[in-house]
Amino acid sequence: MDFDKKHIRNFCVIAHIDHGKSTLCDRILEKTGAVEVRDMQPQLLDDMDIERERGITVKLNAVNVTYKAKDGETYLFNLIDTPGHVDFTYEVSRSLSACEGALLVVDATQGVQAQTLANGYLAIDNKLKLLPVINKIDLPSSNVEKCQLELIDTLQMDPDHCVLVSAKTGQGIDVLLEAIVKYLPSPQGDETKPLKALIFDSKFDSYRGVIIMIRVFEGEVKVGDKILFMSNNNIYQVTELGIRTPDQTKVQSLKAGEVGYLAASIKNIKDVSVGDTLTLADNRTEEPFAGFRKTTPMVYAGLYPSDNKDFENLHNALDKLSLNDAALVYEPETSIALGSGFRCGFLGLLHMEVIQARLEDEYDIDLLCTAPSVVYEVVFTDGTRKFIQNPADFPTDHTKIKETYEPYCKVEIMTPKDYLGNIMTLCEKKRGDYISLDYVDETRVSITYEMPLSEIIFDFFDKLKSVSQGYASLDYQVIGYRLSDVDRMDILLNGEKVDALTTIIFKKTAYGRARAVVDTLKDVIPRQQFEVPVQAYIGGKIIARSDIKAVRKDVLAKCYGGDISRKKKLLEKQKKGKKRMKEFGKVQVPQEAFIAILTVDDKN
Amino acid sequence: MNNNINNIKSLYLHIPFCDNICFYCDFPKVFSRYFDKKLYINKLINDIKKLNIPFDSLMTIYIGGGTPSSLSILEIEPLLYYLHQSFPSIKEFSIEANPESLTLEKIKLYKKYGVNRISLGCQSSNEKILKYLGRKHTISDIQNSVAMLREENINNFNLDFIYGIPNQTLSDIENDLNFALKLNPTHLSFYSLQIEEGTILYNNLTKIDNDVDRKHYDLICSILKKHNYIHYEVSNFAKKDYYCRHNLTYWKDEEYYACGVGSAFYIKNKRGKNTLSLTDYLNDKNKIETEIITKNDEEFEYLMLNLRLLNGFEIADFNKRFNKDFLNTYKNKLSKLNKYIVITDRVFIKPEYIYTMDQILIELLP
Questions:
Q1: Beta pairing partners, A452
Q2: B213/A553 touch (CB, cutoff 8 Å), yes or no
Q3: Which comes out higher in pLDDT, residue A425 or A118?
Q4: Chain A residues whose beta carbon lies within 8 Å of the beta carbon of residue B197
Q5: Domain segments of chain B: what residues?
Q6: Which of A126, A446, B10, B216 gives B256 a disulfide partner, CB atoms 3.0 to 4.6 angstroms apart?
Q7: Neighbour-count burial of B151, counting CB atoms closer than 10 A to its CB (0-12 exposed, 13-18 middle, 19+ buried)
Q8: Interface of chain A against chain B, CB under 8 Å?
Q9: Which fold has domain A196-280?
């Protein structure tokens, strides 16, 4: 298979979450014959169980297919599916840098949404040619014209170039394939120059070592070549090159304009950094790529094995997961209450849930996850500064604190204007500072707020959906730290401080928060054999208390011959449930407690 | 476990027929008028025969339901006759009865064939509550039934009551206790109302308050104690020497036979359950579900059941049966539970924690 650059199209598929990217990719694979219809399964490019289970894409996925166009020529498409959730924006930006074009998918029933714009602008910034694709046109509630108008208003897209498809039924896919050939540019780049390739993804394979996804911009790389990573000057010999069709197919070389994978017996994933430039050791390119901004985790939480014996297993599992997930960071920490575990950094709550689910499903580790927190900054009276990833590390001695800072973000919400009032109320409640309001068209508005990251990472998205009946969409990006008056709130169970339940709270609303948290804990923690006081403690004082009454009845009143097997099963189930709880002093606390305290509504 | 089948001492027989279905009942039962009861009794006798029970091995028989007393004399006599003929070694022979269907003739018949213990379903001494539960008898039916038992000199009888009923007050419970004590039974069972799936109360979305339930329970325990009833199992009280031997078979985790629709047995290392379908049973299509009880299961069940007894179990008995040292095996768990459990040569849960014993079991069980 040898294609000149004119016959190559490198493009990715971007969209707001749930607008049908992965289904569209499925159809393209099917139509180009890359996959036999009988081998087809939904979300074919999503490799992970959790992706298929939840119908989301977490990692970018690249695949090469060939297409025989109406002009009689055969083209090579390098197609990259990207995640839609805002947590995984960094995956999208990496995909973009490997392409010349992007299909911008818009759900015809939903119209342009916050991440349609965010991803669209990102693509324009990367100098990609956008091909708008209006999807789900088979649905009765679709409104193609409205979508087209929105695309003109927001991204200045030419409505004549919009391709109308239904990824579900396959309608319009033929037109789309032709449009890809016609409107998306072919790659540039000189094959005769020294090799210059961009690493845009990597993953670990236990047989071949690290597998790197590359886009070759200049020159050529062949099996046997000595390659050099320009960031660390490490040299390796290429053992395998290939493309995904979507199965891996070996090739002898990859040339300027092409996308493929590379293996070079690289043992440690840490030796490869995504965004790095690859060149030949004895024929180097002069200028490396600018590289990607390193992803910084936004949310930290403690992950502890329910059974302390699993600590090493958890360590190994995190090592393995991080091989394919550069955004996951972790370091060991010890909690008085929970024993040994890890403080892990995530991109957002979905990312956290995904990691948690993978650790439990793929590695069979029962986990206990502490309340997630953003990273605060404390400035001490002596001028020193400290970033606080774990609320339990927040200083208890207030006389030493000069100022505290918390991360803020710019939040963009698109919504039908009917919900504007609700949404603004919600944003004010979440300490948002109003910035601007723009009409997208006569019915929809885009509102911008700046608000603390801590207020949006937990349940803001859910709340936003519920106050807008699901219509509002959200995009946010962190803009920096701001002065903010925060303090630590400790929780005492049965008189003992539980470090894993410590949170950092905004002082002005501390009382309402404390009340809400102790009441929630009272409801979430099951009754024990004795009464358990739950107390919230801020700045040296107990400011709220709620009591968990002792359990009064927990017995099967009747137990005769026929009840024994049933009774045994019930007890075994209860025992399993109990195993998932953690014991503090003598109090059993279920996993939900750690998350529940974050999603409470402050009481007045 | 002693695997010698000759050592099985108890036989349970299930009579699934009722004239009326109570709103809380989740036992296998059917409206009696739709089925051929004589045929059922024949099948039942056949099934017992198939067990080849050695004639002198059985100590207890318990005929439960359903409502065994709903069967007419003609219907039940063949069964009683057969049992009486076949198992002369029976020490305790119980039958369940409801006040509305128990008659002097039936009592005489029961007595004739060796029945020496009656368990009478009273449930409440409050007419309104009886209605709420869907019972079809009155308070005076209960009193009449007891009078008839006394007349026939059957003085060993149990009365069943239910507490923890929505809107039931502590003084309702007191009335029940006074009512029961006046009848001077040898044995009393007080069951907290359980809302089980498939019952009428469940379908009415009835809710139970565990805190109130506990108050009822504490009152029952304290008053019965005052009147010299021994609280020997979670829900059971008896005068000295009148514990229900048949039911002790279950709680001591011993083996038992069972015949009839939906009845459960424990033979060798198998627990099993006869079909729940009366139609299948009558058509000789008794599908028996069985489960193998491993040594681990057995230990689990032994503890789960024996600890229901207020005097628990003998450590030596455990050690012999499982061929290991209880105290040593459970050392760590026991040290966490010392507030709730007493250890002498026996192991038992403190009475004040018996009503939350599942909390303890979850910690203790292997």
A1: A408
A2: yes
A3: A425
A4: none
A5: 5-251, 311-366
A6: B10
A7: exposed
A8: 528-529, 549, 551-562, 564-565, 567-568, 571-572, 574-575, 578
A9: Elongation Factor Tu (Ef-tu); domain 3 (2.40.30)
Distance, CA of A343 to CA of A331 (rounded, Å): 5
| Contact between B266 and A551 using a beta-carbon 8 Å cutoff | no
Q: Which CATH class is domain A5-183?
A: alpha beta
What would be the CATH architecture of the domain defined by A377-484? 2-Layer Sandwich (3.30)
Length of chain A in residues, anyone? 604
Domain A487-596 sits in CATH 3.40.50.1820: no
Residue of A559, A567, A583, A588 to mutate for B, most B C-beta atoms under 10 A? A559
Contact list, A552 vs chain B (CB under 8 Å): 210-211, 213-214, 355-356
Q: Which amino acid is at A347?
A: L
**Residue A190: both structure tokens together:** 């000189």
All CATH 3.30.70.240 domain ranges of chain A, comma separated, are 377-484
Among chain A residues, the shortest Cα distance to B192 is held by A557
Domain B5-251 has CATH 3.20.20.70: yes
Distance from C-alpha of A406 to C-alpha of A453, rounded to nearest angstrom: 8
For chain B, helix, strand, coil in percent to 5 are 45, 20, 35
State pLDDT tens for residues B130-175.
999 999 999 999 999 999 999 999 999 999 999 999 999 999 999 9
Instruction: Report CB contact under 8 Å: A564, B297.
Output: no
The residue of chain A with its CA nearest to that of B208 is A553
ipTM of this complex prediction, to 2 decimal places: 0.91
Tell me the per-residue pLDDT of A346-392, one tens digit each, with 9 for 90 and over: 888 778 888 888 898 888 888 888 888 899 999 999 999 999 989 99
